[in-house]
Amino acid sequence: MTTMKSNLHPSTEMLEKFVSGDLSVGVNLAISAHVEMCEHCKSEIQEIESRAAEHWAESATAEAIDYEADPSNIIENIVAQPQFKELDIEESAVGSIHMLDRSVRLPKVLAKAASEGLVWKQLGAGISQADVKIDDEVHCSFLYMKPGSQTPVHKHQGTETTLVLDGSMSDELGEYHKSDFILRTNNDTHQPRTEEGCLCFSVLDSPLTFTKGLARLLNPINRLRFQRAVGRTLS
Ligand SMILES: [Zn+2]
Q1: How many angstroms separate the alpha carbon of residue 104 from the centre of ligand 1?
Q2: Average per-residue pLDDT in the chain?
C-alpha cells in the first residue's frame, strides 16, 4: 500500500521505468538524486522491485522447470534472474557546490556527475548555468538563481525535469522546496522566480521557447546551444 503523495515526486509510472531502466540517463540521474532525499520514493522503489521479483518468480514457476531432473537448471535460472538497478553510488570528491555565501551539499549521484568540474556561465538576470555532459539525448545542467531573480517567461517544446537542491522557487503553479521533483511538459508556459535563491538540477529533452519581450531573441541561440549540447548539427 502506498500513501498519497503530492505531484512533486516522480510518478509511480516513472519510478517503474526507472527500475526497469527505460528512462534517459539524465532523467535517471534526477530521479536517483530525488530518491536520495525522499524516503517515500525510496520505499516505493523497493515495492516495485519486490513486485518485479515476485512476477519473475511466478513466471519461472509457470515454466514448470524440473529441477530434480536436471539440477543445473537451478543455476541457470539464478543467473537468468533480472538484475535490478542498484542505487549504490560511490562517494565523490565533489560533495558540494559553493554559491555566493552558501555551500550546498549535493546528492551523491549528482556529486559524481559534477566530479569532472563545473563551468558556470552567466545567463543574465542573476541566473547561472553549468552543463553536465552525461547524456547525448537530453541537456542536463545545474541552474542557480540568485536571491530575488526570475527567469524569462518560457514555454516548453518537450519535457523539463527540475529537481530543487537548495533554497526555494515558485511559478504560476506553486512553490517548490528542496527535494521537490517538477515535471513540465510542452503545454506549460511559466516563469520561475526566487526570493531566497535556488539551486536546481535540470534535464531538458528539447529546447525552451521564450515567449515574451527581449528574451524571445534568445531562442535561436538557445536552440543552437541545445543542439551543440546534444551534439547534433543544424538541419
Ligand atoms: Zn519522492
Answers
A1: 20
A2: 76
Q: How far apart are CA 229 and CA 212, in angstroms?
A: 24
Cβ count near 103 (within 10 Å): 11
180: CA distance to ligand 1 center in Å?
7
Specify the pLDDT at position 93: 45
Residue 234 CA, ligand 1 centroid: distance in Å = 38
* 67 C-alpha to ligand 1 centroid (Å): 41
Q: What is the CA(210)–ligand 1 centre distance, in A? A: 30
Q: Is residue 208 scored above 60 in pLDDT? A: no
- What residue type is 134 in one-letter code? I
pLDDT of 164 > 90? The answer is yes
**How far apart (Å, rounded) are the C-alpha atoms in residues 21 and 28?**
8
Task: Give the percent of the chain with pLDDT over 90.
Answer: 31
- 3-class SS of residue 96: strand
Which residues are placed with Cβ below 5 angstroms of ligand 1, an ion? Answer: 9, 38, 40-41
Domains and CATH numbers, the chain: 12-80 (no CATH), 96-229 (2.60.120.10)
pLDDT band, residue 18 (cuts 50/70/90) = very high
